[in-house]
Amino acid sequence: MSKARVIALYLPQFHPTPENDKYWGKGFTEWTNVAKATPLFRNHYQPRIPADLGFYDLRLPEIREQQAQLAKEAGIEGFCYWHYWFGNGVETLQMPFDEVVKTKSPNYPFCVGWAVHDWTTKTWEKGNALAKDTTIFKQTFPGEEDDERHFYRLLDAFKDERYIKVDGKLLFVVISPYLFPSFERFKEKWNSLARENGIPEFHFVGVIESLDQINMESIKNLDNTVDKTIDSIKALGVDAVCTIGQKYAEVKARGFARRMLFAILRRIAPGSVIEKYDYTKIAENIYSPSDKREDVYPQLLSGWDRSPRSGRKATIYYNNTPKAFEKLAHNAIDVVKEKEPEHRILFLNSWNEWGEGAYMEPDLKYGKGKIEALKRVLED
Questions:
Q1: What does the alpha-carbon distance between residue 186 and residue 149 come to, in Å, rounded to a whole number?
Q2: What sign has the CA pseudo-torsion 375, 377, 379, 380?
């Protein structure tokens, strides 16, 4: 019996696309930001340079195979590939996942996560806070015909024997389900189409900040606020909730007054102060009592440092060592250990979000340290 079902969020961005070429320059990928990052304070670990896999290109099947082998080594059950569908057949970054489905390689479990949000010229790159933010793709919800088109776009993946299931249903992750005109209608449509096509129905998971509002009222009873937030998302029709506990941890680690002071300063004068937290303190505070609920799947945070994308406006977690990550992983296992085995799910953020400092892949400083740490936790 597994201690936890660790499913790693996977960014399919590391290859050239027409949109990236147009808005950020020919050949742009996330590596462009990663390589030019600079330290912003003493002992700030930047730039972060990949080791074993190098500055890879996801057009290469060998890279996708090596990623799967490293993830298996860590004890990760599978990848959750971020999927970008903006309505009316408009999508982007689809190539790596399409290749995984079409070639049946790597032979490694997967599921799909719909990243429901707009794409703008500030999606990847830092810049002037006052610069115009141009919309590249607007997230839309055209209606039932588009829901059907979207379903059939992914049907080959849903039929794949590698697709991850929960309680016999296809695991499908959705960021911000509250943005849907009616998530319940979308859910009913897709489950109906699943039955028509002879595949299992869906186990829908909504991804939300466990502390979506930070104000005096919410802080009076912090844990109750988190529970109410989860209940409000469940009421939309999702089967479970993936909690992002970073704001919760930041408030507990620093205190409400100090965090709000930083927030005000950053709003008035972006970049004037750097909002940074000790990752070891985040590890101690990131989980709320609600994360022990059977219908909640917590986040396992591998790190956080968005300075390659946002510069001085980023939130940065320092002391993000393999040892500190191992401690957080132990805490995460403790949170889910009493749940039914099917529901001991931890969404690992992330496998390869290098521009956010949230990755498991080897780097020059720590090598495979986090992979080995997670392996120890899951096997110990």
A1: 12
A2: positive
The encoded tokens of residue 261 equal 């002071």
The encoded tokens of residue 316 equal 């940065």
Q: How far apart are the first and last CA of the chain?
A: 13
Contacts 24+ apart (CB under 8 A), 117-123: 117/175, 117/176, 117/179, 119/19, 119/84, 119/86, 119/92, 121/23
User: Does position 334 have pLDDT exceeding 50, yes or no?
Assistant: yes
- CA nearest neighbour of 113 among 77, 75, 71, 157: 157
Residue with tokens 């959705």: 174
Q: Which residue has the tokens 């946002």?
A: 310
Using CA of residue 174, residue 176, residue 179, residue 181, what is the dihedral sign?
Answer: positive
Question: Which residues make Cβ contacts (< 8 Å) with residue 136, sequence separation at least 6?
Answer: 19, 23, 119, 120, 121, 123
For residue 124, pLDDT over 70 is answered with no
Confidence of residue 128 (pLDDT cuts 50, 70, 90): very low
Q: What pTM did the predictor assign? A: 0.95
Q: Contact 9/113 with Cβ under 8 angstroms?
A: yes
For residue 221, pLDDT over 90 is answered with no
Q: Which of 239, 250, 17, 278 is nearest to 123 (CA)?
A: 17
CA–CA distance, 357 with 34 (Å, rounded to integer): 9
* Residue from 156, 170, 177, 271 nearest 232 by CA: 177
Report the range of poorest mean pLDDT among 66-80, 180-194, 205-219: 205-219
Look up residue 2 and give its two tokens: 């597994």
> Tell me, what's the pLDDT at 307?
96
Q: For position 130, what pLDDT does the model report? A: 42
Q: What is the CA radius of gyration of the chain?
A: 20
pLDDT recorded at residue 7: 98
Q: pLDDT band for position 129 (50/70/90)?
A: very low
Q: Is 73 helix (H, G, I), strand (E, B) or coil?
A: helix
